[in-house]
Amino acid sequence: MTATDPPRAPPPVTTRNAVVFLAVIAGGATLKWMQDILTPLALAVFLAVMIDSFARVLTLRTPGFPRKLALPTAVVLSLALFGVSIWIVVVNSKTFFDHSSEYVASLNAIIAKFTPLVGRLFPGLQLHGVPTITDLAKLLNLQSYIGDVAQSFKNFGTSAVLVLIYLGFILASRRGFSRKIVALFPHHAERESNMTMFQRIRDGVEQYLWIQTVTGLMIAAAAWVVMMLVRLDNAFFWAFLIFLAAYIPILGGAIGCFLPPLFALVQFPDTLWPAIILFAALQGIFFVVGNVIYPRMQGDSLNMDPTVILLSLAVWGALWGVPGMFLSTPLTVAAMVILAQFEGSRWIAILLSEDGDPQGERTLSGQGHGPAPDTGSWSARKK
């Protein structure tokens, strides 16, 4: 192109949007293809953000706490929490195995109770006597599924080791991050714009973690009280599972609240009332927290449409399985903020946002333009 040539016209909006759409599909296919490589890395980055947030909380909320000790203390406390979680699972798994004979007998009693009803509902079904749980296991070929479960635990162990390795290297290279930013963006304005984008992603992830942790603790604590009142075995373990499930947005808490009532049917085979009470109470707790407390805590912090949160849960779950479900909201928040920085992909960020303003420009002192200033982490805002 010479100096006399006329400037090229920009591509039509339709063509540009089509190219962006195809790029999104290609990116999704790449994420699925590289699942085994990217999933541990994404989990490690997520844990690094959690630990960094923990360190800032120690610095801001604890007067006189040495700044140099904040990150090591956060790492030690995080590892301690991880160890306690494993201990809870191991101890309660042993308790389940110790009472397995009682649970098998209860299951056989339940099967015997409902076998006549099944025979009346399905007359063509040939039932030779009353089956046992062992007969059903052979009929459903559960041994093949046991192998799949064992392989899943093996893969989980391998992924956990990779996550810890990645996390160690990310924390070790944390000090050089500022120098890399200066080298990548030598111009001050460009550097400030990208740092603002990074801080918005960090704040969104921290706000999401804070909300899910607090609401999950509320649901788990209330559920534990109800389970103790009906004398459900391993109540603390079930409450712990409900708390972990709460990190899966929208569906996690509801699904977690189904497990204790089902177990109550096994523990109390002679009556349905404990299961009915548990089901009604747990669903009521989840409804109140999810529809009253959660929206008030969330406010406009994430600025994501609820339908988009549910859709992102399905998409990331299809791409990365259970880790994708846990990371669905943070990954979508990061994608929305990044896509909003480019004119060609800003329309996707607008669709992902709740109010059509993915960059938060309308909240800036009535100015209506310019990047959002850094407001710090959730701990700094609430101080």
Rg calc: 26 Å
Order of helices and strands: HHHHHHHHHHHHHHH
What is the helix tally? 15
Mean pLDDT across every amino acid position: 76
* Helix-residue proportion: over 70%
Flag low-confidence runs: 362-383
Give the helix/strand class.
mainly alpha
How many strands, which pairing sense, and closed or not: the largest β-sheet? none
Q: What is the molecular shape?
A: globular
Number of DSSP strands? 0
Separation, N- and C-terminal Cα atoms = 57 Å
> What amount of the residues lies in strands?
under 5%
What does this structure look like?
By secondary structure, the protein is an all-alpha fold. The chain contains 15 helices and no strands. It starts with 12 loop residues before the first helix and ends with a helix.
Q: What labels describe this entry?
A:
383 residues, mainly alpha, 0% strand, disordered C terminus
Task: Give me a quick take on this structure.
The chain is mainly alpha-helical and 383 residues long. Helix content is 75%, strand content 0%. Helix 2 crosses helix 6 and helix 13 packs antiparallel against helix 14.
Write the layout of secondary structure elements.
Blueprint: H1 13-33, H2 35-61, H3 67-98, H4 100-121, H5 133-139, H6 142-172, H7 177-184, H8 188-229, H9 235-245, H10 251-256, H11 259-267, H12 273-298, H13 306-339, H14 346-352, H15 378-382
Helix pairs in contact: 2-3, 2-6, 2-8, 2-13, 8-9, 8-12, 8-13, 11-12, 13-14
